[in-house]
Amino acid sequence: MLFVGRNGTGRSGDKLLTPPRVIQETNKTIATILRGDVKILKKLAAYVVSSGGKRIRPLFIYYLGKANNLEGKELIRLGALLEIVHAASLLHDDVIDRADERRGQPTGAKLFGNKQVVLGGDHLLSSGLQYLNTLGNPHYMAVFTDAIKALSEAELVQMQHHFDLKTDLKTHGRIVDGKTAVLFRAAGALVAILHQNGGDFYRSATAALGESFGRYFQHRDDYLDYFDAQRLRKKGLQDFANGIVTRPLAFLLKAVSRPEYAGLKAEWSHAQKSGQVRAEGEILRLMQKYRIEEKCRELLRSDENRILAGLAALPEKEPREIISREFQKILAVRAA
Amino acid sequence: MLFVGRNGTGRSGDKLLTPPRVIQETNKTIATILRGDVKILKKLAAYVVSSGGKRIRPLFIYYLGKANNLEGKELIRLGALLEIVHAASLLHDDVIDRADERRGQPTGAKLFGNKQVVLGGDHLLSSGLQYLNTLGNPHYMAVFTDAIKALSEAELVQMQHHFDLKTDLKTHGRIVDGKTAVLFRAAGALVAILHQNGGDFYRSATAALGESFGRYFQHRDDYLDYFDAQRLRKKGLQDFANGIVTRPLAFLLKAVSRPEYAGLKAEWSHAQKSGQVRAEGEILRLMQKYRIEEKCRELLRSDENRILAGLAALPEKEPREIISREFQKILAVRAA
């Protein structure tokens, strides 16, 4: 029973916001949740609000909820909390990877130092959970604590398989689910909770849609790391350089001959030592030889169609169209 | 109304456990909460269980609760959760300070590496909160999220005042409250929640007692860093070396003459550069000259008397006596 209004009272009635307004309201809510009098925390809050990113998670939960006729204000609150958890996870990730940049932006670690970034991440999380608790729904709390646990677990699994060429697709799938899919699945579960007042929210259509979307999002990123021409020119094969086996590489390793496998293994060791990919051209030639791009693209297309079908089944037309339009931009596989 | 049994049903009736049994049951509960299939997490859980420490927080909440006639099992659960939050905070602290050891034990960071320690801390926290949520009391959640937030905030305030000789007693008090007192205050608040089914639990007698105890505990540590002969032989004036202004130093700075202040300032700068205290003897001579030890000890004694009076007012005799006896060991100021 996913398509009745909250508490069975029918339509929520509040106005549908445009995406820029959703982002604006989300930022306001984030700022409220993170307000405090410690200087460094003020800076950190401003950083989280201003660095912004695309706010995909808040947009996703807002329009998914509105497409199911839910109250906008609660969706904004939950979206802000998803974004805070996401930001905290990125901050702790930054410390760990000692990454110098994330998508061209200076990272938190570089701006604030490792020390402040760990504590800042803790502060974001606890401020978020404190606010969440005031919303008074223990099901919400279950979804968020499950998600935070899954995020740290997935990072640890990924670490355990760092530069492990034998990482199988099952393990990779677990990492994808924990690192990326989990917050989109959480968004879907939260929408289901709002509808059903609890129930088996992880088995809802919206949680399934969220999970598919999150998985797709990560697999598409992994695909682009090997096959997006524009990205390759700047910095290709980052996952190979960083010792992470993703779908393209896992498929390739299964397909290649023994001598080719040995060659890839040597490149892998070189990347581990140097942090650089030496034989980019050769790796891409093998990808082409075994038609890995086509294989990956086919899988992405079928995922994409399932997601679009899921979106099309949502009851409310206007938010459904916005969500399809907004996410079509992301869903479109850019490479030919 | 702090002295009636849970839900007004009178005495809880379950048997009073000895301190070693409380620790044993706490460790079992911690192991249950932290169980999982990720290899590194198993090691981390084993480390948290086995490194143990004195389990002061679980003992404190157990006997405080029993002295108020509460159910033992729930107290063990809450004590295990306090210990998990404490362990997570130490882990994140380890990363930050790059400390090589904590009280003679190898630190988590040294055993597991920074990377795993940040994520491991996150995992401890989220596992704890996930379990806490299943206990189904939103007041518990409020107390824990408040405490976690206060812990990270206090660490950040401390960082902000790192090697700041002008750190005043108010700021130092805030750090003490956030870093140490907060989890003892939480223990007292949780006991009050169990009694009152909510209410203004932070204003309860047990929360006040917990806070006094936690503050005392930290001030006593700060005192011993300057005035405990045994400790001084091993590694004295750690707080000075680490650029933290505690009560003894704050009192001294207020008391000294201008040239003496300049001398201390020079030593402070030297410690900042070298991480070493050069003029330990001279600093201690000034402490003696201005009778700082006596002043600190007087304050500790008056705190101690207040705590003992608070303990004496608890209704149940047997747990009250155990808590007094156990904590008398800690409460006793060792230095002459």
Describe what you observe in this structure.
The structure is a homodimer of 336-residue chains. By secondary structure, chain A is mostly helical. Chain A has a single domain, classed as Farnesyl Diphosphate Synthase (Orthogonal Bundle). Chain A contains 16 helices and 2 strands. A two-stranded antiparallel sheet of chain A has the order 1-2. In chain A, helix 1 packs antiparallel against helix 2, helix 1 packs across helix 4 and helix 15 packs antiparallel against helix 16. The N terminus of chain A is likely disordered. At the A-B interface, helix 2, helix 4, helix 6 and helix 7 of A face helix 2, helix 4, helix 6 and helix 7 of B.
CATH top level of chain A? Mainly Alpha
Characterize the main sheet of chain A.
2 strands, antiparallel
> How would you classify the quaternary structure?
homodimer
Q: Rg of chain A from C-alpha positions?
A: 21 Å
Distance between the termini of chain A: 40 Å
CATH architecture label name of chain A: Orthogonal Bundle
User: What is the fourth-level CATH superfamily of chain A?
Assistant: Farnesyl Diphosphate Synthase
Shape of chain A: globular
Features of this protein?
homodimer; 336 residues; mainly alpha; Farnesyl Diphosphate Synthase; 16 helices; 1% strand; globular
Précis, in short:
Chain A contains 16 helices and two strands. Chain A is mainly alpha-helical and 336 residues long.
